[in-house]
C-alpha cells in the first residue's frame, strides 16, 4: 500500500468520515462532514479565564498560520505534558507579554495532542467564525494560528505532531472553506521571525499537499453534488441536493 493511501485511510478512520454531502466553490470541493479532530478544551487543560471576553468576527479567516513554540523539543508525549504546555504558554502570554489570553487559537503538542487556545476558539471554528488571537502582528483579524510544540530550526517534526497538524488543517480548511494551497502559510511569511523554523517551514508544501489530498478524498467518498434539481421524483430526494452549510522559549507573537 502506498504511503499516501495508508495515510488517507488512517486519516479517514481518525476523522470518522463516512458519507456526506459535497460543497463546491471556485473549483474546490469540501465534504459537508464533521471532520473535527479530538481537541481538548480549555477546561480540560486548566486554562485561567481571559482578562477580557474574546473578540469574535463574523467571518472566516483567510489564512492558517503555522508556528513553532520555540520551546524545547520535549520527549514527553503524554497528555499531561501537553496540558502543562498550554498552561505555560498561557501564563507566558498573559503575565510576561501582558496579553488578554493565550495568543493562538490552537496548540499541538509533540505527542499529537490538540488543545483549544484562546477562549471561544473551538465553538467559533465550528460556526465558521474567527476568534481574534494574538499570534501574527497586523494579521490577527484575518488569520488563525496553530502553535506546534518545539523548535524546528534543525530537528525534524515528530510523526504524531505532523499527523495531528495535517488533521487540524484539514478540519480548518473544511470548516472555513479554504484552499490549502494558498491558505496555509508560515509565520515568517507575515512577520520578521524565524518561526516556524527552517525545517517546519520547508515542510509546508507537503502539508498543503497532504491536506489537499485529504479534502479530495473526503469529497470523493461523499455523496456527489446535485447541482440540478432532481427529477419529479419523491420529495425526499430534495434533501440530497447540494447543501450550502451555514452552514525563544515561547516566542513573542506580538498582539
Ligand atoms: Zn510564530
From TrEMBL:
<dbReference type="InterPro" id="IPR015510">
    <property type="entry name" value="PGRP"/>
</dbReference>
<feature type="domain" description="N-acetylmuramoyl-L-alanine amidase">
    <location>
        <begin position="49"/>
        <end position="197"/>
    </location>
</feature>
<dbReference type="Pfam" id="PF01510">
    <property type="entry name" value="Amidase_2"/>
</dbReference>
<protein>
    <recommendedName>
        <fullName>N-acetylmuramoyl-L-alanine amidase</fullName>
    </recommendedName>
</protein>
<feature type="compositionally biased region" description="Basic and acidic residues">
    <location>
        <begin position="215"/>
        <end position="240"/>
    </location>
</feature>
<feature type="compositionally biased region" description="Basic residues">
    <location>
        <begin position="241"/>
        <end position="255"/>
    </location>
</feature>
<dbReference type="InterPro" id="IPR002502">
    <property type="entry name" value="Amidase_domain"/>
</dbReference>
<dbReference type="InterPro" id="IPR006619">
    <property type="entry name" value="PGRP_domain_met/bac"/>
</dbReference>
<feature type="region of interest" description="Disordered">
    <location>
        <begin position="215"/>
        <end position="255"/>
    </location>
</feature>
<dbReference type="InterPro" id="IPR036505">
    <property type="entry name" value="Amidase/PGRP_sf"/>
</dbReference>
<comment type="similarity">
    <text>Belongs to the N-acetylmuramoyl-L-alanine amidase 2 family.</text>
</comment>
<feature type="domain" description="Peptidoglycan recognition protein family">
    <location>
        <begin position="37"/>
        <end position="191"/>
    </location>
</feature>
Amino acid at each position: 500500500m502506498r504511503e499516501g493511501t495508508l495515510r488517507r485511510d488512517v486519516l479517514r478512520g481518525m476523522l470518522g468520515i463516512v458519507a456526506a454531502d459535497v460543497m463546491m466553490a471556485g473549483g474546490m470541493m469540501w465534504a459537508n462532514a464533521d471532520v473535527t479532530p479530538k481537541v481538548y478544551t480549555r477546561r480540560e487543560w486548566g486554562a485561567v479565564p481571559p482578562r477580557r471576553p474574546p473578540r469574535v468576527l463574523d467571518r472566516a479567516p483567510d489564512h492558517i498560520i503555522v508556528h513553532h513554540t520555540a520551546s524545547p523539543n520535549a520527549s514527553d508525549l503524554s497528555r499531561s505534558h501537553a496540558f502543562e504546555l498550554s498552561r505555560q504558554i498561557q501564563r507566558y502570554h498573559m503575565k510576561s507579554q501582558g496579553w488578554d489570553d493565550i495568543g493562538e487559537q490552537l496548540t499541538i503538542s509533540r505527542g499529537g495532542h490538540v488543545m483549544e487556545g484562546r477562549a471561544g476558539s473551538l465553538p467559533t471554528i465550528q460556526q465558521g467564525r474567527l476568534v481574534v488571537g494574538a499570534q501574527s502582528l497586523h494579521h490577527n483579524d484575518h488569520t488563525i494560528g496553530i502553535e506546534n510544540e518545539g523548535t524546528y530550526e534543525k530537528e525534524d517534526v515528530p510523526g504524531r505532531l505532523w499527523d495531528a497538524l495535517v488533521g487540524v488543517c484539514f478540519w480548518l480548511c473544511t470548516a472555513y472553506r479554504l484552499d490549502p494551497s494558498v491558505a496555509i502559510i508560515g509565520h515568517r511569511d507575515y512577520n520578521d521571525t524565524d518561526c516556524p523554523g527552517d525545517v517546519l517551514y520547508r515542510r509546508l508544501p507537503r502539508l498543503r499537499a497532504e491536506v489537499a489530498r485529504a479534502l479530495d478524498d473526503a469529497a470523493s467518498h461523499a455523496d456527489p453534488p446535485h447541482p440540478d434539481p432532481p427529477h419529479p421524483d419523491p420529495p425526499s430526494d430534495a434533501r440530497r441536493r447540494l447543501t450550502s452549510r451555514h452552514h525563544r522559549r515561547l516566542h513573542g507573537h506580538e498582539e
